[in-house]
Structures are given as structure tokens and as C-alpha cells.
Amino acid sequence: MIMGLLSCVSEEIADLDDSIIEIIGPAILMNPLEIHTQVNEHFSINLRLEDVSNFMGVFAEIEYDIEFLFYENYELIETDSSTLGVFDGDIFSFIENDTDDGLITVSLSVASGTMEGLAGEGDLVQLNFTATQQAETILILTNSCRLTDNNMDEIPIVNLYNGVIYVE
């Protein structure tokens, strides 16, 4: 499990400086939960899973404010540093950005050599942005987010943790 700053689940900005919490899963979260950046600077934030078992797929929608953030691109994270990244198989991804509405759609499936799903935690996708104006804004994981297991059954999500971006 990771420790992180609590992100708000509404569209209001919370004072996160003193809010240390334990991430409880199964959870989908933005990692890190809080970023401080400057206008015209590039920054990256990851879509992360925490405390999953028998995981085979994720569908996530991430809303962002196009007035303050410009979405550049994404990179799949395939690393041995996460327990999810260590498996024999392939990742199939579909990632789309609606620039008019500020909505990124992520759909990932894993095809492993076994019938068992993956377990553990780890970052899946790195999303790259540029901050365009001073703001306090939130990357919101919508209620449409879903996890599936090796039988394509839904894995109940205990928590969604949004990411807060402070642009100075």
C-alpha cells in the first residue's frame, strides 16, 4: 500500500497539506495525488491501481479542465517496479482524448499466459500535460470507472482518488 495525500471526490478543492491517508483498495487513483507546477511547464501523472486481485481489465474516464490544462499524450507503463508489471503476457490499450470536453478515456486489458488475473498495485498509464494558466484544478476519475477480473466480472472498486493540480 502507498501513503498519499487525500484527494477530494467532489469538484471542490480541499486543503490537502495536512491530510495524510492510507490508500484503501481495490482503488483507482491518480499518482501522485497532488502536483505543484508552473504555467507552461510540462508534468506527468499516472493512472494507478491499488490492492487489486484477479485483475484483467480497467476502464477509466478522467475529466480535466481544458481552460487550465493541455493534454499532450500518454505512455503505457511497463515496469518491474510494480507488482502488476511482472507477468507473461500482453497489454491491449485504447486511450482516447476528447479535447473539446476535457475527457480522457482509458481502456486496458491484459492477456497473460495463465487464466489467473494479476494482483497487487502499480501504475498503468502516464498522462502528460502542460499547465496553461494559474489555477487549482482537479483530474476527476468519473463514476464510470470499472475493473474486471479474468471472468470479465466486475471487481468492486472501494475508492477513487482524484488528482489535484496546483498551477502557480
List the helices and strands and how they pair.
Blueprint: E1 3-5, E2 20-22, E3 27-31, E4 34-37, E5 42-63, E6 69-76, E7 89-98, E8 103-112, E9 118-131, E10 135-141, E11 146-149, E12 154-155, E13 159-161, E14 163-167
Parallel strand pairs: 3-13, 4-14
Antiparallel strand pairs: 1-2, 3-5, 5-8, 5-9, 5-10, 5-11, 6-9, 7-8, 10-14, 11-12
What does this molecule look like?
It is a single chain. This protein is 0% helix and 60% strand. With 168 residues, it is mostly beta strands. The protein has a single domain (3-167), classed as Sandwich (Immunoglobulin-like). Strands 3, 4, 5, 6, 7, 8, 9, 10, 11, 12, 13 and 14 form a 12-stranded mixed sheet that branches.
Rounded mean pLDDT is 84
β-strand percent reads: over 45%
What would CATH call the architecture?
Sandwich
Structural class label: mainly beta
CATH uppermost class: Mainly Beta
Query: Roughly what percent helix?
Result: under 10%
- How are helices and strands ordered from N to C? EEEEEEEEEEEEEE
Could you describe the largest sheet, including whether it forms a barrel?
12 strands, mixed
Query: Which spans of ≥5 residues are poorly predicted at pLDDT below 50?
Result: 1-18
Q: Which fold name fills CATH's third level, the topology?
A: Immunoglobulin-like
Q: Please give the domain count.
A: 1
Total number of helices? 0
Gross morphology is elongated
- Per DSSP E runs of 2 or more residues, the count of β-strands stands at 14
Q: What is the distance, rounded to the nearest whole angstrom, between the alpha carbons of the first and last residues?
A: 31 Å
What is the gyration radius calculated from CA atoms? Answer: 16 Å
